[in-house]
Amino acid sequence: MLRVIVSGTRWAMKRAGWSSILVAVVIFAVAGLAEAQPASKVYRIGFLLTTTTDANRPRAILERLRELGYVEGQNLVVEQSDKVKGLVGRKVDVIVVFGTTTALDAKKATSTIPIVMTSSANPIQNGLIASLARPGGNVTGMTSLSGELGGKRLEVFKDAVPRLSRVVIPAPARSSTEDAFIKETEPAARALKIQLIRFAVRGPEDYEEIFNVAKKERADGLLTRLSSATTPAAQRKQLVDLAAKHRLPAIYEGAIYVEEGGLMSYSPDIAERFQRTAVMVDKILKGANPADIPVERPTKFEFVINLKAAKQIDLTIPPNVLARADKVIK
How many domains does the chain have? Predict the structure, then answer.
């Protein structure tokens, strides 16, 4: 604050001079304040999508970022592309990826732009990070607890279908994560006296063969490893319809399968996962190094059952299992 004290006589004598000085001082002070407070930074976030990525996924993350103070059109620019080079060329501040494949593509394209994964199975084995506690590079985010989750899925599946003894696992062909998944799930399978039968899926043209193999192997259940994030809606429906046609109980990778007519799912809660992803993005935009941000495990899971699907295959879900479900579709 500027204070000017003058006597009445001197003020009368030098009124014009003091006025000029006062105006000059005020202008100088205002200019200095303007220079001391630069304009708010505008951040650029890139979402690396595939042609099958659910369009609502970026929106869910942006909603949480808005709560953290990032408003699109004010201090935030959002870029979306199915080509990582496009995002790198636009010089985004952080790239958000959905799944292991897009994370690997992003890491291959840049070693400097921070990358945040919403989910990745076995990120250490895939070379995305050095460790969960200290990722060590430009990648951090969420892991999907592939093997541990597989054991839990088998457990709830067995509770819902007590006769379960032989389970076919349709999984993407040429996936580096599936060997690890089977290896980590086998101890739970042995404890539950369930035999696992892996089937490599190259595309939807193999879906009918899944059920031929299940019949040949006398399987009484299906535990699919086909991601809800990367499997188009038409293919999800095809798989769900085939399971109903062949009257084979199935547990799926995500709740969206159950909402579309599948029997049941047990998976990390998507809303929680995206909220925590947004918090990591916020930390990076505020200057944190992704190498020092621990990769987090999901802590909240969602068990969903579709009673209409159960009725279609004449399956009665035990009451104690229904009571444990987070959501029951009737």
Answer: 3
CATH label of the domain that carries residue 150? 3.40.50.2300
Q: SS3 string of 224-282?
A: CCCCCCCCCHHHHHHHHHHHHHCCCCEEECCHHHHHCCCCEEEEECHHHHHHHHHHHHH
Identify the domain containing residue 88 by its residue range.
43-144+270-292
Whether residue 101 sits in one domain with residue 86: yes
What confidence tens digit (pLDDT) does each residue in 143-167 have? 987 667 889 999 999 999 999 999 9
The answer on 311 and 195 residing in a single domain is yes
Q: Quick one: pLDDT band at residue 173, thresholds 50, 70, 90?
A: confident
The whole-angstrom separation of Cα 6 and Cα 122 is: 76
- Reported as a single tens digit per residue, the pLDDT across 72-94 is 999 999 999 999 999 999 999 99
- Take residue 257 and report the two structure tokens written for it: 């399968």
